[in-house]
Amino acid sequence: MNPHASYKCAVRLLMALATMASLLLISGCGGSSSSTPPPNQSGFSTSSLSGTYVISVSGTDGNTTTDEAVPFAMVGTVVANGSGGITGGTVDINDPGNTGVNIGQAITASGSGYQINTDGRGTATLNVSISGTTVPFDFDFVLTSTSNGLISRFDDNGTDIGTGSGTIDLQSAATTLTGSYAFSLSGASGVSPNSSGAPLATVGAFTLGSNSITGTEDFNDDLTSGSGLTGLALTGQVTLGTAGTSGTAQLTTSLGSFGFDVWVIDSAHLKFIETDTTGTLLAGDAYTQVTSLSAGQLVFALSGFDGGGNPVVAGGYATTDANGNLTNGFEDFNDAGAVTLAKPFSTSSAACVTATGRCQLTLNGFSNGASQAFTFAVYPSSGGGLALEVDSFGLLQGASYSQSATSFTASGGYGLNLTGENGSGEVDDIAQFDVSSAVSPATNITGTLDENTLGTDLVSVGLNATYTPDTNGDGRGSITAPTSGTFGTDIEELTLEYYVVNSSTVVFIDVDANTEPLGGQTGVGTFQAQSSSTSAAAAHRAVSMARPVVRSHAALRRK
What we know:
The chain has one helix spanning 534-537, and strands at 50-62, 69-81, 86-95, 100-116, 121-130, 133-143, 148-156, 161-170, 180-189, 198-208, 213-221, 232-239, 247-253, 256-266, 269-274, 281-288, 296-306, 311-320, 326-335, 338-353, 358-364, 374-381, 384-389, 394-402, 412-422, 425-435, 445-453, 459-469, 476-482, 493-502, 505-512, 521-529. By secondary structure, it is mainly β. The chain has 4 domains: 46-170, Lipocalin (Beta Barrel), CATH 2.40.128; 180-288, Lipocalin (Beta Barrel), CATH 2.40.128; 296-402; 412-537, Lipocalin, CATH 2.40.128. The chain is globular and about 55 Å long.
């Protein structure tokens, strides 16, 4: 990160979209499913979606007056009937640059529906009643199981333009919350029809009492987090709704009070979306808290801004003890198209406080700071170590994960989601691919990728790529997909550095550099093994992932 650069960008959004292991339901729009599925089909069908699912998607859409990109988030429930129909559901929409905050909006059965290919890819339309007007929202998705999937929004119908990434998870029939939860939320503040606002991100933890919560919370406000925004005492309340409906939360610190709706997936995983009308948009996830990091090898993925407001993604691995002291750390990062791979780093100090479940790590040699010591607050949870940069050199947010394998299973199907930014603005990808046991230089990844950028049509292309593991067996590797300019409109190949969490779950960053003929792209994402078996679906766990921000662009680029 460049702490000396001026903040020169009007920022769109820093949505912490956690859970890159969930799914959505959808009906034919946009042509994203027109490509022939790869030969190793995964056995999915329309009946793979049946029940009540919690959906969550965050990104950007077009301001109807200024024709510029503004932040957007949607969280709620959708009822799928197993035969292609959406029979109900309720969503909250926070769109402060357009329609404002719309709470408890009904999904109408008329015109809503979905379709699913045998490889798990599909499309859906949700018709949402907003203030008496029916608004269609179109999605593209890939199932990783009958309980989970990864989605992209791809609205481009002339009047409703939007893109974004998210998840859907089968909702537990009955849930009781007890104990402590760690959370990661992000977005923007100061958003209005005339302003896309400035980045705002927060992590923290709370313990449930009889009618209230107590805990600790950290903020990074407009890239300038400091001592006045870290380790703040947290009070408020979290109240559950009845099955299938939202609860509410109030999170209060010395910085202010924020109101949320809370959608429960199960007792270990909650979705938050801000519902007050202050022009702030925060959304993200909460997971059951653990009080210390698991000693051993970890991998991480982070995204956000450098000190000049330029997009940054970073990923890598390190060895940790329970207190967060890191050794043998190697980091890859992409700072607005300037890419550095395998840069060593370590901690100069680390401390975890058992009573609050909060760790504070100070890193040497991290990212492109030559002499700065970068500081992160980390809250260990069942969704990973939820991390936020809390110095004044920039804003990075994401998670670390205990590594239990150093290679992913080299057979079968995978679902992939990527969200990031290129010269067209925000970019969101959904893909399904099959892998073979052959390694470089063979083409050992084959499938289909659907891509959307704000204001352009969805692009569906063949995904023919090569994955190459590191020779030292650390769980790190690279994926290269040459595409001769067919990926979106601004890159001619997709280049990823990946980090294995376990044999079925991998996180990655996009390291396409400015040296490529059509420019660079930053991004972060995950790919996860698919299983169409209902019995296997319950064991499929989510990972937490912060999505990157999107810089200011003068106007939407329409195709």
